[in-house]
Amino acid sequence: MSHSETGGVRQAQKQRTRRALLDAALGLLEEQSLSSLGLREVTRVVGVAPTAFYRHFRDLGELGVALVQESLSSLHATVRAVLAEQAGAEERIDHTVAVVERYVREQPAHVRFIARERHGGVRAVRQAIAGELDRFATEVAAALKSQPVSDGWSDEDVRMLAELYVDRLVMTASAFLDVRDGGDQDTERWRAVAGTARRQLRLIDVGRKHWRDAVS
After folding, report:
1. What is the Rg, in whole angstroms, of the alpha carbon atoms belonging to the chain?
2. Distance, C-alpha 13 to centroid of its chain
3. Rounded to an integer, what distance in angstroms lies between the CA atom of residue 154 and that of residue 8?
4. Cβ-count burial of 34 within 10 angstroms (0-12 exposed, 13-18 middle, 19+ buried)?
5. Would 189 disulfide with which of 28, 112, 178, 184, CB 3.0-4.6 Å?
6. Which residues form the HTH tetR-type domain (predicted)?
7. Where are the alpha helices (DSSP H) in 84-187?
8. What is the rounded distance in angstroms from the CA atom of residue 33 to the CA atom of residue 122?
9. Residue pLDDT, tens place only, 142-200
10. What CA–CA distance (Å, rounded) separates 137 from 129?
11. What is the mean pLDDT of residues 17-24?
């Protein structure tokens, strides 16, 4: 085996171990917070020595930051694409709620991690979540700014609107998760969460249409 091939094998193994550490931590965090998680717990699940952990992360806080990026990055582009659709407001709202619903169904552990650690005890992770949500709001603001109904709006007001949307999406994801964890997925309670989310977004949309008149 050539030197380059050996290096490729080692790099692939390193990536697999890193992935295994992330997955193990995420699984353990189903039942506890990051601040209570022990490094040895994670490495024991993966089957590596504790010292091997430091080849991938400085500490559990850095691992948590990686989980934050992983948990939220995939949602950004999807919601941004929905908001950029040329469909009517009602259809965009339905699509947005459907995106959040699918996200909770497919990645409940990631949603639970964000919900728990958003106000958790690890400062670096709290800051990472705040930073990701801030970036999310910036992306949403850009999509909203491009819509005709935003003509004449100040950048500050569009940003405020974007933050309202992002806050509602986060709260909706948490509500779906609560229902799922209660064993009521695909029941009336689940549909009620979706219905409430649609009404809330419609309320925001109605207010948006009259905002310029209210502040003029």
Report:
1. 20
2. 28
3. 51
4. buried
5. 184
6. 15-75
7. 89-106, 108-117, 123-145, 155-181
8. 9
9. 988 988 888 889 999 999 999 999 999 999 999 999 999 888 666 899 999 999 999 99
10. 12
11. 97
Amino acid at 111: V
Cβ atoms of residues 115 and 29 within 8 Å: no
Cα separation, 49 vs 39, in Å, equals 10
**The pair of three-digit structure tokens given for residue 61, joined into one six-digit string:** 């806080």
How many residues are there in the chain? 216
Sign of CA dihedral 173, 176, 181, 185: negative
Q: What pLDDT score does 10 carry?
A: 82
Contact 170, 134 (CB under 8 A): no
Residue for token pair 């022990």: 38
By the 8 A CB rule, do 99 and 78 touch?
yes
